[in-house]
Amino acid sequence: MEIIITDTPDEVARVAADIIAGVVRSRPDAVLGVATGSSPGATYQRLAKLSAPSALGRVDFSAVTVFALDEYVGLPAGHPESYAAVVSREIVRPLGIDPANAHVPDGSAADADAAAAAYDAAIAGAGGIDLQLLGIGRNGHVGFNEPSSSLSSRTRVKTLAPQTRADNARFFDSPDQVPVHCITQGLGTIGDARRLLLVAQGAEKADAIAHAVEGPLSSRWPASILQLHRHATVVVDDAAASGLALADYYRSVQEFKPRVA
Ligand code: GLP
Predict the structure, then answer these.
(1) How far is the CA of 33 from the centre of ligand 1 (A)?
(2) Where are the alpha helices (DSSP H) in the chain?
């Protein structure tokens, strides 16, 4: 695992956006897995700037396909906090992605289990995910894989943890409007991506980052699956890195990283 610790939250976004831009430059029809929530917001804003027609060394997202990590179950169609709406508003439109190439689990399907299975099949049909961008919940969840999620799980219906519902209440008018269920890519689905990139900022993520990066591999802290992956990068600011016992080592690895000419 590569751990990049930055001085500021802005730097987290710059590093993450550069990694994603590099993937799209080398493969213009890349398949990206995208996360919602606050953590990747500034990364998308930087990517939007890089995709502007006037941008120097412009990155063209018009042939890119995106798959969202998750979706709430039971929100009315078009709800502004549905992840379908968030992905459209914060990613698809600003980056110039073709809406036909944007996929979000169908949280209003009559048969949610079938919708979840169809989602995994759609990812496989697109050739798999080249890079999956992840945030992390305070309880260590990735996507909506709450503690106790099977480490080999596939896309499926899950029940949100009370802490997650409370954390996400800020997006809704009242806490009881936060759905109880969701469809989320599974930990096994996420692990199938060819590259994982997790971003986190702020001291409230420090405990989860410490468990994910340095704790035992455990469904108690679902993000610890990154330890199993061959190409996982964690980009955190100083505050989110504050629980890492080996932070100085990770900083020195970056300082002495061999540069490819
Ligand atoms: C959300 C999402 C996750 C996200 C996490 C952290 O509920 N389902 O994909 O990474 O919780 O959210 P935030 O970045 O807003 O802290």
Answers:
(1) 14
(2) 9-26, 41-51, 83-87, 93-95, 112-125, 162-168, 187-191, 206-214, 247-255
Catalytic residue selected from 90, 130, 146, 237: 146
**Average pLDDT of the chain?**
97
* Ligand 1 atom nearest residue 135's Cα: 10
Residue nearest to atom 6 of ligand 1 (CA): 137
From the candidates 79, 101, 106, 141, give the one annotated as an active-site residue: 141
pLDDT band at 57 (very low <50, low <70, confident <90, very high): confident
Helix (H) or strand (E) holding 5: strand 2-6
Q: Which residue matches tokens 């439109």?
A: 93
250-256: long-range contacts at Cβ-Cβ below 8 A with a sequence spacing of 24 or more?
250/3, 250/4, 250/5, 251/5, 253/2, 253/3, 254/4, 254/5
pLDDT digits (tens, 9 = 90+) for 59-78: 999 999 999 999 999 999 89
User: Catalytic: 168?
Assistant: no
